[in-house]
Amino acid sequence: MLPSKFAHSSNLGAGRQMKIPFLLLFFLWEAESHAASRPNIILVMADDLGIGDPGCYGNKTIRTPNIDRLASGGVKLTQHLAASPLCTPSRAAFMTGRYPVRSGMASWSRTGVFLFTASSGGLPTNEITFAKLLKDQGYSTALIGKWHLGMSCHSKTDFCHHPLHHGFNYFYGISLTNLRDCKPGEGSVFTTGFKRLVFLPLQIVGVTLLTLAALNCLGLLHVPLGVFFSLLFLAALILTLFLGFLHYFRPLNCFMMRNYEIIQQPMSYDNLTQRLTMEAAQFIQRNTETPFLLVLSYLHVHTALFSSNDFAGKSKHGVYGDAVEEMDWSVGQILNLLDELRLANDTLIYFTSDQGAHVEEVSSKGEIHGGSNGIYKGGKANNWEGGIRVPGILRWPRVIQAGQKIDEPTSNMDIFPTVAKLAGAPLPEDRIIDGRDLMPLLEGKSQRSDHEFLFHYCNAYLNAVRWHPQNSTSIWKAFFFTPNFNPVGSNGCFATHVCFCFGSYVTHHDPPLLFDISKDPRERNPLTPATEPRFYEILKVIQKAVDRHTQTLPEVPDQFSWNNFVWKPWLQLCCPSTGLSCQCDREKQDKRLSR
Length: 595
Known about the structure:
Elements: H1 4-37, E1 40-46, H2 65-72, E2 75-77, E3 80-81, H3 87-96, H4 130-136, E4 140-146, E5 170-174, H5 191-217, H6 225-253, E6 256-258, E7 261-265, H7 272-286, E8 292-297, H8 318-340, E9 347-353, H9 385-388, E10 392-395, E11 404-406, E12 410-411, H10 415-423, H11 439-442, E13 453-458, E14 461-467, E15 476-483, E16 506-516, H12 535-550, H13 562-565, E17 584-585, H14 586-594
Parallel strand pairs: 1-8, 1-9, 2-11, 3-12, 4-5, 4-8
Antiparallel strand pairs: 2-10, 5-6, 6-7, 7-17, 9-10, 13-14, 14-15, 15-16
Helix pairs in contact: 2-8, 5-6, 7-8
């Protein structure tokens, strides 16, 4: 028989042996839990895609099987809202989780997006993007596609607004946006503006010239010959500057970059979506062993519309439908790759659009180049539901139950706190974050959106407010002003190409227009004190919310001030080339070398 002390020691050893597998299991569970809480993240953003375009949101004629597959495997948000109905401010809000007016990324003037790569405005350096937060947590980060949040501040090499200065390890795409001017034969987005800036002065000069000539011929006024030559020179100068601007806009502003280097100037549309898809796929393949964040920001379906030979002429909706179906193919390539690499279960995918479809997009030949906003009124550049209600799809097979539909109000600003928490990154405490973590809704732990109020800005002007009261199914939406559609009775501002936010372009409402979006999503029947007994009570609550909100808005530098917006020659980027042509094609050159 063993002595008692040895017997006790033997029992301790047995206890330790029992604890070792338990500890091992605990640590394995901890490691798996940590991995599950730090998924790979792919954020896919279309440009100007309407909520009525994908099949999973009701379209019966445009084929989007891959976007639909994404929706059936996850959650479809039916009241997902862009924080702004325009590209630049919407993307600023998406990246930072904050209303764009907080960062100065909302314009007080007519133009609400950047139009020149050599502007000095952009996402301020003190703003924190989700890319920066995730990079600090060890994520590999990449932006493939469109940026549109500025480039440089004081010199063309400081790149203060560049994606690589905002948390991305890798960038491949365009710094500005896809415009008609970038594709030969597609016309110009500046035509309407130049009618005022160019043709009006030309008309004034012409009328002045003819009047002086007539007075001179009648002997009523002696006009020196030099006056006529001066007026003719002025007219020629105005016309030359206009034509020169149109001629040089494409090479100076429409280029592709890889990190800080221009690789194609002007950019080519040949197999452009395939190139973006390949870059995204290669980034994923390089990071199979480490958590990654990929923002895939398509150029589709902003005009100029384009598609490769495999998709051109194949849809039932002309060049627009072709572009949508090509983008859907690209989404499918990414989903297939995740399956092949066995990463699908550990990857959160989000698909959306930066704002609603641009209903005013009609080509010079009369072809409709804008998409569908379904049953919703309005579109890009206004805060009717068609301008801000966008697709919102999230899939994460390991965590999110497939086949869900959530009707609660959510925002593209919600992505910031959602991915930050999943990556284990604390939210910044020195600023207001307007987004809310989506995971409680997505996992079914909450049935209510954390957004009681959402504020809808038209550029920097507070346009409307959405109120979803606690313990109520109603969703009230009050408009302080609405755009003047042209022609009257249409669904857009066709005379000006986009709706503007001030002056004679809008109609102010006192009292505000009030709708119950839950019952009237088409916004056809504004409520009155006669039809809604609580009319003034509802507006009073909304006004108090506005007052609280506006008190949280300190004055910040205006990134769209004239000084920040205007083209600055010393900020102009030009690819390394012989002479002053600003033309190169490293893409084609690299392809030749690889053969």
